[in-house]
Amino acid sequence: VPLAAGIDVGGTKMLGVVIDTESPGDVLRQHRVATARGTDAVVTGLVEVARALGLDEGTTLGLGIPGLVDDNDVLRMGPNLPDVVDAPIGRLVASALGLGHVPVDNDATCAALAEFRGGAGIGVDDGILVALGTGIGAGIISGGRIMHGVHGFAGEPGHMLVDPNGPMCPCGRRGCWERFASGSGLGRLAREWAEAGRLGAVVAAAGGDPDDVKGEHVTEAARAGDRESGEVLDRFAWWIAVGLANLVNILDPHTIVLGGGVIGAADLIVDRVVAQLDGLVLGSGRRPTVPVVAASMGEHAGAVGAALLGAHLD
Amino acid sequence: VPLAAGIDVGGTKMLGVVIDTESPGDVLRQHRVATARGTDAVVTGLVEVARALGLDEGTTLGLGIPGLVDDNDVLRMGPNLPDVVDAPIGRLVASALGLGHVPVDNDATCAALAEFRGGAGIGVDDGILVALGTGIGAGIISGGRIMHGVHGFAGEPGHMLVDPNGPMCPCGRRGCWERFASGSGLGRLAREWAEAGRLGAVVAAAGGDPDDVKGEHVTEAARAGDRESGEVLDRFAWWIAVGLANLVNILDPHTIVLGGGVIGAADLIVDRVVAQLDGLVLGSGRRPTVPVVAASMGEHAGAVGAALLGAHLD
Description:
2 copies of one chain form a homodimer. The first copy, chain A, starts with a strand and ends with a helix. The longest helix of chain A is centred in the last third of the chain and has 25 residues, at about 225-250. In chain A, a hairpin with a 2-residue loop joins strand 9 and strand 10 (about 145). The first copy, chain A, is globular. By secondary structure, chain A is of the alpha/beta class. Chain A has helices at about 40-55, 90-95, 105-120, 180, 185-195, 200-205, 215-225, 225-250, 265-275, 300-310; strands spanning about 5-10, 15-20, 25-35, 60-65, 70, 75, 105, 125-130, 135-140, 145, 255-260, 290-295. Chain A is about 35% helix and about 20% strand. In chain A, the strands form 3 sheets. A 5-stranded mixed sheet of chain A has the order 3-2-1-4-7. At the A-B interface, helix 8 of A face helix 8 of B.
């Protein structure tokens, strides 16, 4: 059985898995370490995870990294890895482990590969995975293949401008979609409502100070039946739908898979997005509704996709 | 020599051409008629143009239509053809002319085919044509092929939301990119500035009433050296760059070709767009700048691309 290892580098942790490529949804082994700062420390951590996974002879390795990864497997920049710039991570890890080639791609692109090959989008040849976490990552599958773009940088809708008067983004621009539709966006939206005197139940749950309101307080209160929390989630889901509609207008995908930490609350989010998406798409009513489904691989998706990438199953 | 005919249906006129497919930039014959309302009248007009072009035995025909054209060559809807809905235009025209098959695609998609096969984007396999006219159309070429999306509806960035507080769009939604970055968008922006007491030279040229200011007044005044007109064009070009940057973040193309009526003022627009695009793209400075060039086929691009489509050279 061909085994494949993959490691997903996050802003706070690195998660490695070993899978059987014929059954990518089943994780055979896993290991995680905290993400340290700087190229050398990241490489050291990756080598540690790879060794802990116990790579046998013939086991391939691939890496998913949160940032712009070019066609030569070089990480050009990643907003959540500020001290790692123009880093040939794949080559450094391959060299340290004595492996021939360690392919690298964007972490959300890896997650898209995993979900469309063995997860919620299985069987779909033209789909988009959108990972709603602290920021927004995405991967586009077109004709069964990852769409990389000419330089390897395709699939960053999180930084499309959706509001010229919106808040500043860590990327240096204003009004990026991820300021509104990520986990951070939900927290910001809730604090705005709280500071305007709404969301009393949520503010109470947060200890009384509107500044301390977080997204989790909203989802908990909504589950407990708080009406205003449901309204915040309606607005949050509208922002998610805005960006998805932009993607549908541009790419016309078969299916959209939503992943990332926010989708831990899939029961509160997905139906609200579906209810608002159609009305934001050009020609709705005269074209099929695009199915929007929750990812099924959870936090493993990026590492599983990296393993598929390493095994050249991309 | 294989000849091919193509007809581009616009909101006001239909333009037909005959080309030699080996030299698509050279238009051998052309004919135009006004666009009438309703499916029957549009089909009658298309048949008139085709007959006037004098299709010889073996000459193929293709059509470009401004709207959502599905995989079965049915026009689902077009904002500028309000009385033509769910119309099997290709089949109706083929039947009237006794032709076997008349392929149909979106007009801007046809223009993209023409510009990337024989115009300003020749030799580029991954590019986007954005046609800035009354609205905004677009066509995406990926790996040398038109990107149609799953249902045929890809390539409508004109209706991506870029401002939740923006003006209403004829499509029924608010804040679409084409409200800001089309020819209509330039006129609206200029009237806003004029009503705020700016653009004195432009208002004078328009006869004294800010409500009568049009985009052409601004471009004429800018050419004559009016400083404020240059500033309006800077802002207009920023809006163009916003949408292009969104497309670059999502698709990572090699080259963008700008066409449409607005690009009649390419000398005033393109450099201003180029100057502002890079700063709006994620990771600028760590990735190549995307070349933005003016289309070279002018008003013929859609019809030439329709001819290529008809000859199955898409």
